[in-house]
Amino acid sequence: MEILLLIVWIVILFTVVMLHVAYATYFERKIIGHMQVRLGPMRVGWHGLLQPIADGVKSFFKEDIIPENADRPTFLAAPIICLVAMMSSLAVLPFAKGWVLADIDIGLLFVFAMSSLASYGVVLAGWSSNSKYSFLGGMRSMAQVISYEISMGLSLVGVMLLAGSLNLSAIVEAQGDRFLGMYLLPQCLGFFVFFISMLAETNRVPFDLPEAETELVSGYCTEYSGMRYAIFFMAEYIGMMVMASIGTLCFLGGWHGPFPVPFFPPLWFVLKVYLFMFIFIWIRATLPRYRYDQLMDLGWKMLIPLALANIVLTACLKAILT
Amino acid sequence: MQIQYKPRRGWLGTIFQIEILQGMNLTLKRLFSKPITRQYPDERPQVCAGFRGQHALVRDAATGDSTCVGCMRCVAVCPSRCIQIRTHRDPKAGNRRVIDDYRIEAPRCVYCGFCEEVCPVNAIVLTKVFEYSRFERPSLLFTKEQLLDNWDRFVSQPDSQADGYLNPFWRPRGLAEGDLPAPKRLPVPSEWSGEQQVVGRLWRQHLPPGHV
Amino acid sequence: MSRPLMQHLEVPVPDGEGERYSLRMGPQHPATHGVLRVDLELDGETILACMPQVGYLHRGIEKLAESRTYAQGLILTDRLDYIAAMANNVGYCVAVERLLSISVPLRAKYIRTMVAEMSRICSHLLWLATHALDIGAMTVFLYCFREREILLDLFEELCGARLTFSYPRIGGVRQDVTAGFISELQRFLDIFPSKMEEYETLIDTNRIWLKRTVGVGKVTGEEALALGLTGACLRGSGIDYDIRKHQPYDAYGLVDFEVPLGRDGDIYARYRCRMEELHQSARIIQQCIDQLPPGPIVGPDAPDLVMPAKASPRIAAGATTYGAGLIKLIRDRGPYLAGDIYVATEVPKGELGFYFISDGSSRPYRMHIRSPSFIHIGAMAAIAKGGLVADLIANIGSLDIVLGESDR
Fold first, then answer.
1. Which of A25, A191, B2, C27 has the most crowded CB, counting CB atoms within 10 A?
2. What is the pLDDT of residues C333-371, one digit of tens each?
3. Residue C3 above 50 pLDDT?
4. CB spacing of C390 vs A212 below 8 angstroms
């Protein structure tokens, strides 16, 4: 009986997240469109509101092309690995008090593990396509994920120190419901490092090197088409949402807001996640792209030392204050 | 002249990412400005008079036929050689040339407008119509009747400004006034030949009243 | 994967280790500005050798010109650099006028200068748009297109076409400018500086843009001369060479403008040069509007568009019928017609030269086009070597190539 209930919850979560992913693409296209003095999607439905659905239907019925010399099993598995890894990290995210599928004590570590697992999908996709652009994209992705995973993990150590827990619900509770309690202020250095690593981790501009469309055509997903391509797309957006959620939970006080919302407790959480998404999109509309070696420079020479300094600072402060 | 670079950012600018924030401020401002997109099939573009679009033979109101005299100047000048004219001599009308057919192979045309420019009687024009793509090639080989129909369709449009198409160009060179074989070329508008020309700083006074 | 692509280049593999990776970039690639193919030998992402391949857009324009009269050849030049067709048209007309020694009235000269500079702004805006897009700044792209659209609308109002203008004529221009056109152009010039500021806000001092452009794709002055670079690519390296200034044609001798010169010869210097040229072009247009003299727009000795290929006996005997214009010209100035001439003009991409060999008929015996893009593509191999793939993309954008012109 309990398992049945869990399955129902999973299905609901899946549906809701998928809807959010679909409309996140719409949100992105609309916002970037208006920032670029365009209109964005307009033709399908009122102001293009049905565009994500049309896109989904289109990619579902599109021909699924598998290159002749591709490594077939890996080629087929790569997008699934990506999607599954990204979706399983949703299980540990608390959307509101008690609104969590699996309230495990190592929630933060689990999310890290899953997001690094997703990069395997990208690397395998790049390798198995047997295409030169995909291969370069996969290599870039590998290097990028390895270096930014470190700085991101280190940037959150400060949060762990302050909260004294790896459980995401506990981290939120530790911040309390006051504005000043948010870890954004004491952890501003950590937040800065986390934010940049988050952009790199989710392959967003200015770090979208693995799929840099003007350099590598489309990077690791050059050879993918139809639904498989859409799965990569979904994984990318779920990744964005997961990262935005981690940022919200660890730095912005999770579901706490100025006043509690009666019937829909996760409202503040959703708003904060969408604020993050907006900033993602905003940055995409503004900034150019780093070069591969400059990205490595930034990661190893800037962010990791900063994150380490942040850990030392936080630990010292905590030792002094307590 | 050596170009001047903007000064390099200071350490404050580096830490607080000033130039990135300025850029983001601009994109945020543009988010709320009016988009410039024209929703094409719903919103028609304003095509200026003189646009070189679909070909047409002007239908003469008096005779109901083309004014073409078969002088072959357009055939001679066409750089892509897409115009064909067949003529015969009519002994009854003082041995003048009568055209049997006038064909334009639209897919080969480069829309340079040379033909309308050299036509001494304003018979051939390139109209404003630009939406005439077809699925099959033969329907773009316009015959004389089709070209006359094109003209009818064009003038029946509400904003056709057909007068603007009746040869506002400079006179064909090397052609004495008396040699023009048929109804004379329209006189060049006076505003292009001296007194009313737009000149230097004085151009504002030529604007029609109420024009910004 | 490691099959050497260019054995004849003898590419050394550094340290004797690592595998070479050959990549054929293009002709279908989003950042090669058309149908350029670049064969690359890579070590990781470092370019060991780079060999551009052109010819995918070859239409035989030089050969086509041999079977067209001088007047008809004009439309072929529209298809060279289709981004700045007007500048090509003007260049062609200037060349033919020098060959046939035809005079152009002053008003036509001013109008031509004006439209050529408009087309320079169009071209530079498109260059900035695509260059920024290549480096990843996608918003600049649409901001540039917003202003380019205004200019294309103006061109449409002026001559009825938005891309392939065929507006100048040998010995003049096709139509006179109207007051409405000039007022719209003035309005554009009024808003243009503020729009330029927008582009510069987004990229000019942006640290990522600086990282991607400063010190990348360096060409010293001597190298640039040896590679035959012209236009902003040469001026970015500090060589003061602008045909508009040093061998003025049309009304360039009568207007006041500066030739911006760069220092370092890197992508950033070329970028700054072109941005400054945009300001200078706007200045030239403003002066053309202010100084526009009255008068005819076609000279008295301009040939008719209908140029017969050979003088038929009937016409040569003096009978007055159509198309006698050029025949008269040929008879009157026989000695000037046969011979050859090279006339260069400054188009947005660099020095566009037309070399004519005339045998006295109204068709060129041979027309050769010295197109800047072709020569810049040739220089790419030297510039991109040793950089990364991302630098190659930035270099392609910075050299400002158009394949229609290079392959003609």
1. A191
2. 444 556 788 889 999 988 999 998 887 677 788 889 998
3. no
4. yes
**Does C198 reach chain B within 8 Å, measured CB to CB?**
yes
Query: Which of the listed CATH numbers 3.40.190.10, 3.10.20.740, 3.40.1620.10, 3.30.70.3270 matches domain B55-180?
Result: 3.30.70.3270
3-state SS, residue B168: coil
Determine the Cα–Cα distance for residues C279 and C77; give it in Å rounded to an integer: 26
Tell me which amino acid residue C403 is: L
Q: State the nearest Cα–Cα gap between A197 and chain C, in angstroms.
A: 16
Q: How many beta-carbon contacts under 8 Å exist across A and C?
A: 78
Domain ranges of chain B: 55-180
Q: Quick one: pLDDT at residue C325?
A: 45
Residue of C nearest to A289 (CA): C136
d(CA A216, CA A291): 12
Any idea what DSSP says for residue C236? T
Please answer yes or no on whether C137 and A286 come within 8 Å at the CB atom: yes
DSSP state at residue B205: G
Chains that contact A by 3+ CB pairs under 8 Å?
B, C
Q: Where are the alpha helices (DSSP H) in A186-301?
A: 188-201, 226-251, 267-286, 292-297
Angle of CA points C135, C141, C147, to nearest 5°:
145
Query: Which of A287, A292, A294 shows the shortest C-beta gap to C137?
Result: A287
A103: buried, middle or exposed (CB in 10 Å: 19+, 13-18, 0-12)?
middle
Q: Domain C61-299+343-380+397-407: which topology? A: Cytochrome-c3 Hydrogenase; chain B (1.10.645)
Instruction: Name the band, by pLDDT with cuts 50, 70 and 90, for residue B2.
Output: confident
Confidence of residue C284 (pLDDT cuts 50, 70, 90): very high
Q: Do B24 and A42 touch (CB under 8 A)?
A: no
Hey, which chains touch B, using 3+ CB pairs under 8 Å? Answer: A, C
| Closest Cα in chain A to B19 | A287
Are A37 and B20 in contact (CB < 8 Å)?
no
Whether residues A292 and C390 touch (CB distance < 8 A) is answered with: yes
Is any Cβ of chain A less than 8 angstroms from the Cβ of B133?
Answer: no
The more confident residue out of A123 and B6 is A123
How many helices (H) and strands (E) would you count in chain A? 11, 0
Average pLDDT score over residue span C225-249: 88
**Does residue A126 carry a pLDDT above 80?**
yes
Query: Is A282's CB within 8 Å of B28's CB?
Result: yes
Range in B107-111, B155-159, C105-109, C151-155 the model is least confident about:
B155-159
Summarize the confidence of residues B114-118 as an average pLDDT.
Answer: 82
C255 close to C288: Cβ distance less than 8 angstroms: yes
Does B20 sit within 8 Å of A38, measured CB to CB? no
- pLDDT, position C124: 92
CA–CA distances in Å: residue A245 to residues A111, A176, A204, C210: 11, 17, 16, 33
pLDDT given for residue B182 in this prediction? 39
| Residue B148 confidence (pLDDT) | 87
Share of chain A above pLDDT 70, in %: 99
Distance of residue B80 Cα from the nearest chain C Cα, in angstroms: 9
Of B24, B35, B39, the CB nearest to A37: B35
Instruction: Tell me the pLDDT band of B208, cut-offs 50, 70 and 90.
Output: low
What pLDDT score does C317 carry? 40
Give the pLDDT mean for A212-222.
Answer: 77
Q: Is C175 on the interface with B (CB under 8 A)?
A: yes
Taking the CB of residue A189, how many other CB atoms lie within 10 A of it?
A: 17
Write the ipTM.
0.84
Distances (CA, A) of C121 to C134, C138, C277: 20, 20, 8
CA dist., res. A294 & res. A304, Å (int) = 14
- From the list C21, C143, C208, the residue facing A288 with the nearest CB is C208
